[in-house]
Structures are given as C-alpha cells and as structure tokens.
Amino acid sequence: MTTEPTDSPFRSEPSARDTAPQFVLPLVVRIEKGAPPARTDALETAARAVLVMLSDERSLGDGEWAQAVRDWQDARIRKVVRRARGAEWRRAEALPGITVTGKSAEVRVFPPVPLDGWPKELARLQVSGTDLDDPEPPVEADASAPVLWLNPEIEMSAGKAMAQAGHGAQLAWWELPDEERAAWRDAGFPLAVRIADPTRWGRLTTSGLPLVRDAGYTEIPAGSCTVVADHPALR
Prior knowledge:
Blueprint: E1 23-30, H1 39-55, H2 66-74, E2 78-84, H3 86-93, E3 98-101, E4 106-109, E5 113-114, H4 120-123, E6 147-150, H5 158-175, H6 178-186, E7 192-195, H7 198-204, E8 211-213, E9 225-230
Parallel strand pairs: 1-2, 6-7
Antiparallel strand pairs: 1-4, 1-5, 3-4, 6-9, 8-9
Helix pairs in contact: 1-5
C-alpha cells in the first residue's frame, strides 16, 4: 500500500502543490470559560468534522463547496484550529459550515478559504493558547474501530493536535474504497484518537498504514511524523 506519494500534501519536501493557490480548512472549537471540552474528545470531534466536510454533498460533484474543496486538496492540505466562546461562537455559527458535536466538544468546520482570505468573523479568533486537558485518562481504544495514533515523542497544543488528527482522518478517507467510505460515513464516523506507546509507534510507522508527516508551518519541525491512521479496512 502506498500511503505517502511523492506529491503528498502532508510531506515537507517541495512539490507542485506548493505552486498552486493555497487554501486552508478552518475549524473552530468552542471553549466556554469555565467549561472547556476534554482534550481527547476535542481531537476526536475535530477529526470527525473533517470527515463530515469531505463527505458532505455540498463538497462533492457540483456542490456549492466542491470547487473550494478541490482547490484546497490540489495544494498543501492546511487546517487551522481557532477557538471561540460566547458571541464569538455565535458569529461563527452564522457562517456557512457544519457543527460536529462530541461528548463535551463542539467543533464547527467551514469550507476551505484562501490562505489570506479568512472571513473577518474567523480571522479575529485566537489560534494560539488552545490548550485542553483530559479530566480522566481516555479508555483503551476499541481495536475494531479506526484509531488515529499520535506520536508519543512530540508535544503539541490541543489546536495543533486537532489539526493533525484531522490530517490522519483525511488520509484514511482517501485510502478507503468507496464501499468502506460509505460504511464509515453511515456509522457516523466512529474513531478514537490516542497517544501510542513507543513500542506500538515503532510498529505503526513501518506498517504501511497512512502516515502524516507535518510540513513544519507551526510548532514542530518539518518532516515530523505525527499521526498514523489505523483503520481496520486498511490493515
């Protein structure tokens, strides 16, 4: 299985994708003062939000978002997570997009926009400082469902990790045959995001499963392996 083609949007090496107009997929996580979501739930909800956007009829064929999605996928795949609360969140909800809800998290995903063309309601939102915790350790991942494994040796802010989980989910989506895509979508995109232990991580990175290498725009060095997408249908 080839999971990292030479023109992969998740590799750090220069490619033809760099000369295309650059777009970004905006995601906004709701973080109300005094009631933040759990970190793992926010990561999982962000990953599902990316899948919901990719599979939405408005993103396909002649849908109203389809051209923006194609332009985004033809260039480097960038995702940026910002945070909002109160009136900021209400303004974000008024823009075209899709809100995906987890156990404690709400994430709104928007159709891709030019890198320097964010709507003003989103451009003013903070991107840094999106830090979240898990009140309790996450339960062990169900091996029968897709798991997005995070590199145990890399520390990332919650916002950065949300974007990376979204990258992993997107790679899995691309690799799946149509029948498996439909089954995953119809089931509501069940998935887990977990930090791999070092031994498991070593096996995962040589398993042939889809692997995200960060382009190095923020926080971590270019070429860093951040996520392995372990979908049962790809094992």
